[in-house]
Amino acid sequence: MNPGAPSSRYAGLDLLASSVLLLGPAGEVRYANPAAENLLELSLKSLQRAPLPELFANGQELAALCAQALAHQYADLRQDLSLQRSGREPLHVITSVSALGEGELLLEMRENVQQLKLDREERILDQSQANKELIRNLAHEIKNPLGGIRGAAQLLELELPPQHPADLKEYTQVIIKEADRLQTLVDRLLAPHRKPHIVGDVNIHEVCERVRSLILAEFPAGLSIRRDYDASIPEFRGDMEQLIQVVLNIAHNAAQALKGRIAAGDAEIVLRTRVARQVTLAKVRYGLALDLHIIDNGPGIAPEIRDRIFYPLVSGREGGSGLGLTLAQTFVQQHLGVIECESRPGLTDFRILLPLP
Ligand SMILES: Nc1ncnc2c1ncn2[C@@H]1O[C@H](COP(=O)(O)OP(=O)(O)OP(=O)(O)O)[C@@H](O)[C@H]1O
Ligand SMILES: [Mg+2]
Questions:
Q1: Which domains does the chain have, with CATH numbers?
Q2: To 10 degrees, what angle do helices 240-257 and 204-218 make?
């Protein structure tokens, strides 16, 4: 063996899409293919600066894995690792180690996509909770002086001399009306944290039927709401009124987006219920979950707000307050579930996943 020129020995590995490294007996990197350089975001030169495990803050796990493979001459030893890199996110990799003989080890690394997805979801959850906290505090701060402003405007109106020009009263009316509008907004912002959680047995199809009749009452012509139910879905514990609000807010958005098609007479909303198995919701794994879709054939969510629709006060609609989806998300999270959305012109699909017993 000639450790001086391993790259020529392993030239074929350069073409592989998976990441491969060749280590010497002390863990030193003798060769890394370009895919490995990419994955680890380190050039071959940097990789060769120190034994591979020493490049990571928690390298001892990797070192232990290598030592084990060497000691027992395993052909393929596999482990999930989260490699800590200074100043960057940890790298989640599924690592296989094979002993090649003469103290050499072949390492194969694959990115652990599932772990990456969980990390991202966790970050989004943290962020949305921080956002909601901020909004709630802000709403409280606005609410307190609002009553005073409205009251003062009313008093002012009473104090106006009888022969005053009519437009003075218009001014006080503007103050009162705008204060009322703000009051409604603030009340909606605070609503999800006020109402008590009333838990009972929920039949999801009862929820869907209620929403269906409410929407059809508001949009009696040009819109059809198709049911696609899986009757085998069991009842679960939850707050029925909250869940109605969730589905109603989403279906209501759909109906509003369908305006054009309602006029043309071919607007459709589909309420689909299914069972999902082995899903992870907000970091917890469940054997069984409700998989509810609310699908419309409208124009899709405007691209400029697509990533932010669940944030409070984000609206793409004239006169919209941008709270419908924030509320829906809060309620779903209170039920330990998640809410997701996919949208393109002609098909918008809101998906709610809730744990089932
Ligand atoms: N099915 C849909 N099709 C197209 N756009 C949608 C759909 N659902 C939501 N949107 C977009 O997302 C935005 C945010 O919705 P959200 O319900 O949070 O607020 P809103 O409807 O604007 O106001 P409100 O607080 O009255 O519900 C909407 O304004 C709309 O632009
Ligand atoms: Mg809405």
A1: 6-111 (3.30.450.20), 116-194 (1.10.287), 200-355 (3.30.565.10)
A2: 40
